[in-house]
Amino acid sequence: MELLAAVDVGGTTVKAAVYERGSWTRRARLRRPTARGADPGVAVAEQVEAVVGELAEAGPITAAGVVVPGVVDEAAGIARFSANLGWRDAPLRELLAERLPMPVAFGHDVTAGGLAEHRFGAARGFADAAFVPVGTGIAAALLLGGRPHRAAGHAGELGHLDVGHSRRCGCGSTGCLEAIASAGAIARRYTEQSGRPVTGAREVLAAEAAGDAVAREVVEDAVVALAAGLRALVTLLAPQAVVLGGGLFEAGGLLERVDRRLGESLVFQRRPVLRRAELGDEAGCLGAGLLAAQLLGPAVSA
Ligand SMILES: [Zn+2]
Questions:
Q1: CB atoms within 10 A of CB 101
Q2: I want to staple 27 with a disulfide (CB 3.0 to 4.6 A). Which of 1, 18, 244, 297 is the partner?
Q3: Confidence class for position 1, pLDDT limits 50, 70, 90
């Protein structure tokens, strides 16, 4: 049985696991706060080396998959940009290959999550699908004709579609979807308008359910904006399914509200199936494992 190490490097947490290739049984997992350093690419590569070393206690590792956020050019092996991790043009694949004693696949976290949802989760059976995690930001993994559409890491920036409002986005532009509809934006806007601090967007959803008028307005703005963003996605690429990820969609009927609003806004466009992601925060890790398996080519057995 071949073992694959999978590492999902996030802005705050590194999630890692060991999977059996073929059965995808998880043999080990661990989490660590993401390392910081003067050279952020080197700091992360050194941490991945240590994490894979720990994972190897589960048995000899045949290949590793490592995924990172931001703009990622997999073909070149370079992490172009991540505001959270603070790197620009970090040669991650090379930094990892120098440190890990096994073949390493390097990829993009959201794309890997989309691959995992397509293989094991809510996008199963759809050749044209979008995986849209809504968290601190909003991005999309695009699967077109059964293949990820990457454009050297520049495609899928759904969070920066202009949905027509005047708020400033972290990217420097105004009107961006994620500046009004990300989980972070929902929590921030609620606190600004109500004066009440909250721990996250789910608390705003709970406040809305309890009859809070400010929460109602903030959540409704997010629903309208998400539907507008998805309308553009549907008009341009016509995915058969859109898989929405993030804790926000696990409660409160938010997905159904976005679905209804989107349905009302479509005229001739094919209406996609909207689904909740099924793999939760393991999607990126499973996707990293899939990339490691792809690197090895077809399995000899199973
Ligand atoms: Zn933006």
A1: 11
A2: 18
A3: confident
